[in-house]
Amino acid sequence: MFHQLLSLILLTAPHAISACQSHVSKPPLLWLADLRAGSAHIDSDVTPSLGEAPGRRLIRFEEGATPIPVSLDEKLELEKSGLRYFDVTEVDVEVVFRERIANDRSSLANRAIPSAPTHQAQVKPVIATLSQANLKTDLAELTSYKTRYYKSATGASSANALLAKLQTIASSAPGTGGAVSVSSFAHTWGMPSIIAKIAGTNASGAITIVGAHLDSINQANPASGVSAGADDNGSGCVNLIEAFRKLVAAGFKPTNPVEFHWYSGEEAGLLGSAAVSTSYSKANKAINAYMNLDMTAWLQTGTTPQIGFVSDRTNAGLTTFTKKLVPEYLSGVIATTDSCGYACSDHASWNSLGYAAVYPFESITQYENPNIHTATDTSTSVQFSFAHAHEFTKLVVAFLMELAL
Ligand code: BES
Ligand code: ZN
After folding, report:
1. pTM for the whole thing?
2. Signal peptide: which range, if any (predicted)?
């Protein structure tokens, strides 16, 4: 992918610039290269701790690396550059560290992962109700905003409209009697994340979560560029909306709780999922599993439809199990393996806290959508396939029912 190529260029750029020169006066890509190489000037009066220095963000390029303070302008340059980073300003570093040292959550989750699907009798009737047409309608609404950039007014409007849509679905639930709830999760920036919950009969049971990022980005012009973000990641968002709609309509009453998350700020460094997962971790919520939906609609012409399960920063046992759902419940698509090689989406937030995550992706890297992060990531391309995306809604329903019933 082109992000990787750009990073490679940055990584291999000569770092001849003296360590204490101010990076702000340099061409952006040079100081970015300095940052990546760890030779950038860091203001001595800025301590990399939480909540300090308004207008500054803490970023890191690798998990576990020391956070580097950057200004908002510098962060904007980073967003444009395609260089990959985590924004950890909102993350309680201490909590992340403690969890990582303990690192027993994955093993807990591993023990609970079934070896094969067993709930066909309940899952198949719900899958039969899933609508491809609803994906289209819901996506048309999401892509009607100029951008869903996490700092934009239209991004915030899109989240509020989603909240209203989910509330309507929740209030139409037959006999769910308060078991379905929808809320927004506020952030320090304008656009909230949105959370929908279906309570379990065992209220304190481990939660099964499906998540997708709602924000979009025009990488060349984040603040004012057009970004419909149809595939990245309107597609994953509408999968979750339709799965929620039909599970609620079916009166789904799981044993253990399930949750649907629509994150803000993924494109700016996994911000929303970092905030939500850290808050869950601090509250000691038991998590069963997390499934990430990010890009589900691109089908390269002339290729076999496949779901590429991302093999890095995910749980191997959970991935093996989720792959088994594909021949059981989906049609015309095969399960294969893909990798990001870096913290490319929100599964990394959950994974870094020791929770079991799985990430089924629209294809393999070779056939991925080349239009993401530009104004041309729309649903009008012939390679944008609602039929392909529809298979992912089935996967969401199967995953939630198999793991939470
Ligand atoms: N959907 C992408 C990640 C992606 C792109 C996965 C192509 C697989 C193939 C995601 O929204 C994204 O753009 N992530 C950023 C990283 C993030 C930490 C800012 C990226 O890949 O540059
Ligand atoms: Zn993206």
Report:
1. 0.81
2. 1-19
Ligand 1 atom closest to 232 (CA): 1
68: pLDDT strictly greater than 90:
no
Asked if residues 329 and 117 have their Cβ atoms less than 8 Å apart, the reply is yes
| Ligand 1 atom, smallest distance to 338 CA | 8
Domain ranges of the chain: 2-89, 112-404
Nearest CA to ligand 1 atom 17: 269
Would you identify the CATH topology of the domain 112-404? Aminopeptidase (3.40.630)
Neighbours of 173 (CB within 10 A): 19
Ligand 1 midpoint to CA 270 (Å): 9
Could you give the CA distance from residue 30 to residue 307 in angstroms, rounded to a whole number?
37
Ligand 2 center–CA 326 separation, angstroms: 25
- Return d(Cα 305, Cα 297) in angstroms, integer: 10
Q: Which ligand 1 atom is nearest residue 295's CA?
A: 1
Ligand nearest to the CA of 1: 1
